[in-house]
Amino acid sequence: MRSERSPTQPALDTLAIHAGQEPDPVHGGVMPNLVLSTTFRQPEPGKPLQFDYSRSGNPTRQALEACLAALEKASFGFAFASGCAAATTLLSTLGPGAHVVCGDDVYGGTYRLFARVMAPFGIKTSFVDQSDAGKFAAAFTPETKLAWLESPSNPLLKLADIRELAGIAHARGVPLVVDNTFASPMLQQPLELGADIVLHSATKYLNGHSDVVGGALLLRDPQLAERIKFLQNAMGAVPSPFDCYLLLRGLKTLPVRMRAHCQSAAELAQRLQAHPQVERVYYPGLSAHPQHALAQRQMRGFGGMVSVVLRGGEPAARRFLQALEWFALAESLGGVESLAEHPALMTHASIPRELREAIGISDGLVRLSVGLEGVDDLWADLLGALAAAEKGTG
Ligand code: P1T
């Protein structure tokens, strides 16, 4: 992973540990306080000190929001109860008749939110290949109010040229949202590349320990921030102070975790690529990845996610997944422990089969979240599972 340098700004390694967190003024505790109080005593009616009610604002959440904003080089940070809650709140800035241009390879729950929750409210979405700037540009209509993409995408690890697509959106007066869940701010800061809003499922790398479901929106525009702040309170999809505390704790090791995720994933992607049972490996760090040059330009590291197509389709994928030992067969990603899953049957089952197959989410596709276990143990596990997948393929 390349390091990020700036003569005036502290490194992300430093911000991850300190941003938004002053030592406790009473006891000097170096960890932020976990403030569980739901309400705050007011000296006069309607004149609270800093906080009045914990849905509207809370000291632990405020520390988390400041830390996340610093990591994404944003001016404003908002934490939510989940990545989907962050997305729902953001989409509530739109009204009936609005149109969204969205990448075609996105988390299945994001697709479901657009197709089954927002559509009945009159918000239409076009799903287009975000790796093709021409197709992306052609999808805009006079009603388009938002452009949305994941890079790298879930589960096919497709990239979007964020700078170019931000230019396309801005030429039409439309803000660009980048779901930065797979990269994390350690590998890419979309606002620096011209995006307007960064979305995170904080459940993943930001927390890193698979014990918090959370989400975040990070942005620079004060007017939009005002609206999001209103909706965060009015809709109420906020995280608990305890979850904010755990997230702050997880963030402190984000830089070191990401370096280790990148290193092990690159090693395993290389080895998988050479295995006869593997038809194709998707990993932006491989020179065979169609957008490797863009990945080198746009990212500081290639991440911990690797997707593979196994020979033998779904039966082979099932045998493979059930034979794994260190890799747990489970949804989610970005934790210290390795996970493996079958997008077509699990995380992306809510996308209709024809659409899934059209974009390349085949029945032989398996997604790996490479954790921080010993890389040779992980490789031995994969080799054993590949042997199990092979049995019966022949
Ligand atoms: O699960 P939640 O915190 O609500 O986040 C939704 C979400 C948003 N964006 C991306 C890129 C995601 O990957 C997710 C959640 N994804 C999984 C649970 C998964 O296994 O892919």
Largest sheet: 7 strands, mixed
The residue fraction in helices comes out at 25-40%
Might you state the CATH topology name of the largest domain?
Aspartate Aminotransferase, domain 2
Task: Find the CATH superfamily of the largest domain.
Answer: Type I PLP-dependent aspartate aminotransferase-like (Major domain)
Within the largest sheet, what's the order of strands? 1-7-6-5-4-2-3
- Rg (CA only): 21 Å
Gist of the model:
The protein is α/β, with parallel strands linked by helices.
List the helices and strands and how they pair.
Elements: H1 12-18, H2 59-71, E1 76-80, H3 83-91, E2 99-103, H4 108-118, E3 124-128, H5 133-138, E4 144-150, H6 162-171, E5 176-179, H7 184-187, E6 197-201, E7 215-219, H8 222-235, H9 241-251, H10 254-273, E8 278-282, H11 292-298, E9 305-310, H12 313-323, E10 328-329, E11 339-341, H13 353-359, E12 365-369, H14 375-390
Parallel strand pairs: 2-3, 2-4, 4-5, 5-6, 10-11
Antiparallel strand pairs: 1-7, 6-7, 8-9, 9-12, 11-12
Helix pairs in contact: 1-2, 2-9, 3-4, 12-14
Bound molecules: ligand P1T.
Ligand P1T is lined by residues 82-84, 107, 109-110, 150, 154, 179, 181, 201, 203, 213, 215, 331-333, 347.
Describe it.
With 394 residues, the protein is of the alpha/beta class. The protein folds into two domains: 12-251, Aspartate Aminotransferase, domain 2 (3-Layer(aba) Sandwich); 255-390, Alpha-Beta Complex (Aspartate Aminotransferase, domain 1), CATH 3.90.1150.10. 37% of the residues lie in helices and 14% in strands. The strands form two sheets. A seven-stranded mixed sheet has the order 1-7-6-5-4-2-3, with helices on both faces. A five-stranded mixed sheet has the order 8-9-12-11-10. Strand 2, helix 4 and strand 3 (124-128) form a beta-alpha-beta unit. Helix 2 packs parallel to helix 9 and helix 12 crosses helix 14 (375-390). The longest helix has 20 residues, at 254-273. The chain is globular and about 75 Å long. Ligand P1T binds next to helix 3 and helix 4.
